[in-house]
Amino acid sequence: MSKRPAVIVKPREGRRARAGAPWIFSNEIAMDQGAKALAPGAVVDVKFDDGQEVGSGFFNPKSLIGVRLFARKTGVAADETFFAGRLTHALALRERFYGRPFYRLVHAEGDGLPGLVIDRFADVLVVQITIAGMEESLPALLAALNKVVGPETIILRNDAPSRALEGLESYVRVAQGAASRVAVEENGARYFADLGQGQKTGWYYDQRDNRAFVAGLAKGRTVLDAYSYTGGFGILAAKAGAKEVICLDSSEAALKLAEDSAAASQVSVRAVQGDVFEEMARLGTAKEKFDIVLADPPPFVKSRKDLEPGAKAYRKLARLSAEITAPGGLLLLASCSHNIPLDRFAAECAAGILKSGRTASLIHSAGAGADHPVHPMLPETAYLKALVYALD
Ligand code: SAH
Predict the structure, then answer these.
(1) pLDDT digits (tens, 9 = 90+) for 189-202
(2) CATH for 80-179?
(3) Which fold has domain 201-391?
(4) What is the CATH superfamily name and number for domain 6-71?
(5) Whether the CB of 261 sits within 6 Å of ligand 1
(6) Cβ(83)–Cβ(137) under 8 Å?
(7) Does ligand 1 come within 6 angstroms of the Cβ of 233?
(8) Is 251 touching ligand 1 by the criterion CB < 6 Å?
């Protein structure tokens, strides 16, 4: 029997946990003095009020999600052996479907590691921690990473805004090696990413398959890659023989990387710095059209309370994008907000396209690639939606 603190789920509560979800909300927990006194990030055993085991988890009395389970048994330690086991499993899964060491190595609860994301760029790992328990476990995690993966460089991109919800400070630190611009290999193309300064971990592996899908349709076509970031979609389309590619983004640094990646791939893309809504409205007024329009914006629904304004923004983006899609053209609309479900997002896209006066059929509906495994009881881990429409 372990002597660790135990956290008890209130009678008749913990509905999602009973169904297999790895979260227990703070209002579902019997918050006695003992529980309240535990430090954020404490490792606890969780039990239902009848004594039935729930598992081992990270507890944070300050967070809305009171417990994140990391094992379905009590008494499991978040130590080097535990991390090495989970990482070995995660690595084996990636090695089954990718020939090159460029992928999301750990996708949080989807890999049984709550609050942890790790992207791999060959010998460089970028680690992103978002919960107190994982932050407390950092030494054990780093030791396990060195044992299982053995990277040269590990960068801690611990600057996600959601860390504040867990009472964690924001920082970026090189844990070992040196941070620099790296090459990313994906779909046979080479890109550059800035892992210390870029957005999130520096690269969005989640769109890998969707980039390949679009590139497969791009030969001889004109392409507008809106919210291009460092050119993930646009450069692959150019490599696949697109006639003209515009990368549109508000970030000068991201566009500079896109231009450098294009040059290294011996293709040309035109980088345009600007606001997508303004630029699309301008292109619409000028009656400019593209055979393929891609719109992969930052999350418009950051929290549940933003659902209505965010949904409206997705609808407007769909309308503006449809207006500049050529007759017979293709339109990809994406959302990385887990707070808007697929059916609602698709409804907003449909409404926006209709409002532009166009008709469309949905030809492809996809999520993130296989290196972003979804926890089957936690729809929040399936955040990415990418819908491709064929317009009239
Ligand atoms: N499609 C990209 C990822 C996009 S991430 C890829 O495949 O890698 C979202 C991007 O939107 C970021 O690069 C950010 O700089 C940009 N962005 C955010 N708000 C914007 C705005 N109002 N206008 C143009 N770009 C914006």
Answers:
(1) 999 999 988 788 89
(2) 3.30.750.80
(3) Rossmann fold (3.40.50)
(4) PUA domain (2.30.130.10)
(5) no
(6) yes
(7) yes
(8) yes
